[in-house]
Amino acid sequence: MNKGALEIPVGVSNRHVHLTQEHLEQLFGPGYELTPWKDLGQPGQYACKEVVSVVGTKGIIDNVRVLGPVRQYTQVEISRTDAIYLGLNPPVRPSGDLKGSSPITLVGPKGTLVLPEGCIVANRHVHMSPSDAQRFGLQDNDLIQVEVLGEKSLIFNNVQVRVKDNFRLEMHLDTDDANASGITTGAAARILGKQK
């Protein structure tokens, strides 16, 4: 296998919040619309100027960025380090898999939102288009091994492949994994193959 041909960019995903329109208005006021601030690696996704406070059982993290556009579900993604600080034990899950996830409270300038579930630690994953998947011999939801090429290079297991027409090739790690491998957004990784 020519590993050099399988090199992919890495995006580091900091703690963030996805909101439904209903919950956006509950936190920011009736009729409120998100204000795009900075484009993200995936087409159509962007960081917003809006921030909220995330409240756990033991701690509060202020200025947590809202990502746009609005979604069909509200979700809070944090690292394991954040979870310990907040006093939570969220499951490691793919985005959108919220059943039985941790309860969480969000505080915005116009209101408070208490969620019975909705907080996760996002699993490691690689976004790719169908043509990328075909090139790498992979399918949606495959689990693969990926070597992150940093100051402290690491091999990550259980990396989920996520395939969609509009996805741009990019691996997503949270800040804990990025710090462990000594990398920042823009670093490179190498797909080693399917999980053994």
Tag the structure with descriptive keywords:
6-stranded mixed barrel; 4 helices; 14 strands; disordered N terminus
Walkthrough of the structure:
The structure is a single chain. The chain is about 15% helix and about 45% strand. By secondary structure, the chain is mainly β. Strands 1-13-10-12-11-14 form a six-stranded mixed β-barrel. A six-stranded mixed β-barrel has the order 2-5-4-8-9-6. A hairpin with a 4-residue loop joins β11 (about 145-150) and β12 (about 155-165).
Number of helices: 4
Oligomer: single chain
Determine the N-to-C terminus distance: 16 Å
Strand content: 35-45%
**Largest sheet at a glance?**
6 strands, mixed, barrel
What's a quick, concise take on this entry?
The protein has 196 residues and is mostly beta strands. It has four helices and 14 strands.
Give the SSE map.
Blueprint: E1 7-13, E2 16-18, H1 21-28, E3 36-39, E4 46-55, E5 60-68, E6 75-77, H2 80-86, E7 92-93, E8 102-107, E9 112-122, E10 125-128, H3 130-136, E11 143-149, E12 154-163, E13 170-174, H4 175-181, E14 188-194
Parallel strand pairs: 1-13, 2-5, 6-9, 7-9, 10-12
Antiparallel strand pairs: 1-14, 2-6, 3-4, 4-5, 4-8, 8-9, 10-13, 11-12, 11-14
